């Protein structure tokens, strides 16, 4: 193992994996450091529901072999209503997907080192020049990319990204067999990805059922420690308690059983990113704030952030003098706002408002969705202020005011 590379990437998730894949294909010497062991990868880091849409599959040439089930619809649920929208998609086997990214990059020459826990940056003249991992091991590169998402040990040490952790998102997911996907009184979830807004199950967040074929599905709960959670939380309940409450009260789980070994946990933070780069360094992958307000798709954002980082590194390293200065790598920040998360402030504001609404308002929202044209929903989901405003009702003014007050105070 050499200790000098063009690019070091900490973290082998979708963002880090895609960055490594693109850079290796361009002929750069790439080293990826991943905390998990090769035998276990990916287990503890398997934090995604792994639902995505055809545009992502095509943009990144994701093979059918990593798909658990191709879906036809997206379904939104409230406590008493549901809304079906025809939206083809794919539920990925996330472990196979991440291993595919590893195989793709390694085939083009990238080096992956597992059991490699990154601890801190190596600094010279006030700039990062390498990474220390597993205690005393060192590796050096012209560019270092922190793709560890919420943990971000390098970004924290460099004081990049304005990592003021305030609103933590906590999630848990199991895979089940024996599901009843269409009991009386519920929408048919066959070949569908469903997101449910219901504070009894996920106060200040959402729950989901993603059909993975036959009578199996991914089932999970995520809540954010926000105003919606503080107002609606059940005293003493943990994330496991909320999931169990749902399993005990929903007929779709009456005969369902957990599939052994298919349990995933994770956490992230919902906040607007600040600066994401500096001299010789980029921080990528923590894309939870960019998730679509209505449809929830996040894998695409991770992949696009990895591609934007690779394009930025390629530009910097192609220069005859290899200009990896902060001003050059700031192109990543520009690409992030243009291509990864356009109108991110509007979309995140909409998300925060959504999680503050009551269950009764969720029922009204789903009633409205049946009457609204798809173009308006797409525009609102994409952050159009006018489309978002048209979805508001008089009772939403208090939610709008409280959300705006918190934004300006923070």
TrEMBL record:
Gene3D superfamilies membership? FAD/NAD(P)-binding domain (3.50.50.60)
For this chain, one GO molecular function annotation is: oxidoreductase activity
| SUPFAM superfamilies in the cross-refs | FAD/NAD(P)-binding domain
- Keywords of the record: FAD, Flavoprotein, Lipid biosynthesis, Lipid metabolism, Oxidoreductase, Phospholipid biosynthesis, Phospholipid metabolism
Query: Please, one GO biological process term?
Result: phospholipid biosynthetic process
Q: Name the domain of life.
A: Archaea
The UniProt record lists the Digeranylgeranylglycerophospholipid reductase catalytic domain at 192-244
What's the protein called, per UniProt? FAD dependent oxidoreductase
Q: Which organism is it from?
A: Haloferax prahovense (strain DSM 18310 / JCM 13924 / TL6)
